[in-house]
Amino acid sequence: MKNYELTVLIHPDLEMNLEPATTKIKELIEKNGGTITKEVNDGKKHLAYSIKGQDFAVYNYYEVELPADAPKKIESVLNITDEVLRYLLVTVDERKIKYEAKQAARKPHGEDADDEEAK
């Protein structure tokens, strides 16, 4: 299993009832053998340029673990999903994961490293 980051821009008209759209995305990931390790809803944001005639979109971010054949299957379904304006599925650099784990281990009990240097 490989780590991926998936960012999905959901149609802004669905802002009030995101549950069906997000459930569809979660089921798609799980149906293809993946697991969601982190999910963040960044809310409705203004787009830099119009996508499918829309100036706003609801941003959802997922960190997922997927088997080797799953990304192509997920991308093919997201391409034809009406609720999704745009998506981006990228692999996570393993060095980044190791670096973040090392940084988290350095910070004792949630304190910032800068706070300790200031003491």
Task: Please provide a brief summary of the model.
By secondary structure, this protein is an alpha+beta fold. It has helices at 19-31, 70-79, 94-106, 113-118; strands at 2-10, 35-51, 54-66, 84-91.
Q: Can you walk through the features of this model?
A:
By secondary structure, the chain is an alpha+beta fold. The protein has helices at 19-31, 70-79, 94-106, 113-118, and strands at 2-10, 35-51, 54-66, 84-91. A four-stranded antiparallel β-sheet has the order 2-3-1-4, covered by helices on one side. It starts with a strand and ends with a helix. The relative contact order is 0.24. The model has no long low-confidence stretch (mean pLDDT 89).
Write the layout of secondary structure elements.
Blueprint: E1 2-10, H1 19-31, E2 35-51, E3 54-66, H2 70-79, E4 84-91, H3 94-106, H4 113-118
Antiparallel strand pairs: 1-3, 1-4, 2-3
